[in-house]
Design brief:
The protein is an alpha/beta fold. The protein has a domain of 221 residues: Rossmann fold (3-Layer(aba) Sandwich). 42% of the residues lie in helices and 14% in strands. The chain has 10 helices and 12 strands. It has a 6-stranded parallel beta sheet, sandwiched between helices. A two-stranded parallel ribbon has the order 6-9. Helix 1 links the parallel strand 1 and strand 2. Helix 4 runs parallel beside helix 5. The longest helix is centred in the middle third of the chain and has 22 residues. The protein starts with 11 loop residues before the first strand and ends with a helix.
């Protein structure tokens, strides 16, 4: 079978290369992984997915130890209309892939979202808090998490929020585009609070987990998961919290600092959620507690959101 970067002994199979995280995984895993794109893996047809994975495993059976799922249905508003597809791609497919991984003794990394929670209150949600999604997208990702646990595969779920990158469609690039093209003031929601996450950091955290688990297995001759739960969930975002309005203001400030060609006189005005109607309800509180990651993996510190925004925007200048 064809792959995007044929290599001799990959330890990782990555599903999904066109999204923000998949884009950065190609850079950070590079010679350690084989990447399967949408033409090879379509999560709408899980039977064909399994056939493609079987073919890939046949080709690289001696080296592959991990499966990373970086593909998903991410159109939050469209999911309200196309609920069946969202639930099939985000909910059912991960469970089937988890069973495949379990059968072939391959560990799994899955990305999830703050949308599995109800978004109430002002405290950060912990990994063990009850799922109570308020829209179809959240329900589909919650279903995916539960199906993976049920599959019995070993691995990790990384829950994140507000992902952005210099690649693909995201809030940062949208605001920059509007700052260049718009004449009327921007109105941005001020009462939804969370943490931005630079997709590169999520990709680096993925590589860190893969290397850490494999190092334990090699040095101790036993599985990292021997005395731990099979499928472990961690929250991973950048450090800090901010509203969408404050995030937009920070993007404008950094654009001015970098000398980007934007309308410096364009106003950014705060509004409340009820003033901006969307098909899918959004959580008011997207805060995720990072204490579990920080306690378990102090050697991989979480970076401040503003610092990482600056890093991403500097790359956008190039």
């Amino acid at each position: 079978m064809s792959t995007l970067n044929p290599i001799l002994n990959p330890r990782v199979i990555v599903i999904g290369v066109s999204g923000q995280v998949g884009f950065h995984l190609q850079a950070v895993l590079n010679h350690e992984a084989v990447f399967l794109d949408r033409a090879q893996i379509n999560l709408n047809n899980i039977d064909l997915c399994i056939k493609s994975l079987d073919a890939c495993l046949f080709q690289y059976s001696r080296s592959v130890r991990w499966l990373v799922l970086a593909a998903a249905y991410t159109q939050v508003d469209l999911a309200e209309t196309f609920a069946e597809e969202a639930l099939r791609v985000n909910g059912e497919a991960p469970g089937v892939l988890g069973l495949w991984a379990k059968k072939n003794n391959i560990k799994f990394i899955y990305y999830s979202t703050d949308y599995v929670f109800n978004g109430l209150g002002i405290l950060p949600f912990k990994e063990e808090d009850a799922h109570e999604p308020i829209n179809v997208y959240g329900k589909s990702k919650s279903m995916g998490e539960k199906q993976l646990v049920k599959s019995g595969c070993y691995g990790f779920c990384l829950r994140t929020s507000w992902v952005y990158s210099e690649h693909g469609k995201n809030f940062v690039k949208t605001i920059l585009k509007l700052l260049k093209e718009r004449e009327k003031p921007l109105t941005i929601i001020q009462d939804q609070v969370g943490a931005p996450t630079y997709a590169l950091d999520l990709a680096l955290a993925t590589k860190f987990l893969i290397h850490k688990v494999d190092a334990v297995s090699l040095s101790k001759g036993q599985s990292y998961f021997l005395n731990n739960e099979c499928f472990q969930t961690y929250h991973f975002t950048n450090q800090g919290e901010i509203s969408w309005y404050d995030f937009a203001c920070a993007i404008k400030a950094e654009a001015l600092n970098l000398g980007l060609p934007i309308n410096r006189d364009l106003d950014i005005q705060p509004i409340f959620s009820h003033q901006y109607k969307t098909a899918a309800q959004r959580p008011m509180n997207s805060r995720l507690s990072l204490k579990k990651w920080q306690n378990h993996f102090p050697e991989f510190p979480i970076q401040p959101w503003k610092q990482q925004l600056q890093k991403c925007m500097r790359l956008l200048c190039n």
